[in-house]
Amino acid sequence: MNISSEQIVDTFIIHGITVEIQRITWRNDPGLSFDVIADGEMLTDESFDAFPTGGQILGVLREHATTFCRFCGRGIVGNEGHLIGAAEPGTNPWCCDDDWDERLR
Ligand SMILES: [Zn+2]
């Protein structure tokens, strides 16, 4: 398929990460494709057919996370995680927002 145009149609910040939504139109196809770009890096392997929802965007970011919550295993995106002060050396010190408790500090 031939790309007709590529355009950044929205930019916002999620947990400190700059997220851009790129819309692609095709020369021989009336459909649209939407991709998620985070800090300049294209994250979507497979484009969305419609403008992605906040939940879908967060899902894409979580799939590419490099740190994970110690308790639920969820990917931690940008600056949303918390460091567990009492984590034993060699164990995962990260906790997601939902599981965080001030007593872990
Ligand atoms: Zn968690």
Describe the protein in words.
With 105 residues, the protein is mainly beta. It is built from one helix and eight strands; from the N terminus they run E-E-E-E-H-E-E-E-E. The chain has one helix at 54-63, and strands spanning 3-14, 17-26, 29-38, 41-42, 67-68, 75-76, 82-83, 94-95. The protein has a four-stranded antiparallel beta sheet with strand order 1-2-3-4, covered by helices on one side. A hairpin with a 2-residue loop joins strand 1 (3-14) and strand 2. The longest helix has 10 residues, at 54-63. The protein starts with a strand and ends in a 10-residue tail after the last strand. The structure holds zinc ion. Zinc ion binds at residues 69, 71-72, 74, 96, 98-99.
In short:
The chain is mainly beta and 105 residues long. The protein has one helix and eight strands; from the N terminus they run ββββαββββ.
List keywords for this structure.
105 residues; mainly beta; 2 domains; 1 helix; 10% helix; 40% strand; elongated; binds zinc ion
Q: What count of helical segments does DSSP give?
A: 1
Ligands (ions, cofactors included): zinc ion
Category by helix and strand content: mainly beta
Strand order of the largest sheet: 1-2-3-4
Main sheet attributes: strand count, strand direction, barrel closure = 4 strands, antiparallel
Pick out the low-confidence regions.
none
Alpha carbon gyration radius = 17 Å
What is the domain tally? 2
The oligomeric state is: single chain
**Fraction in beta strands:** 35-45%
Distance between the termini: 52 Å
Following the backbone from N to C, one meets helices and strands in this order, namely EEEEHEEEE
Number of strands: 8
Average pLDDT, rounded to a whole number, is 94
Shape: elongated
Query: In percent, how helical is the residue content?
Result: under 10%
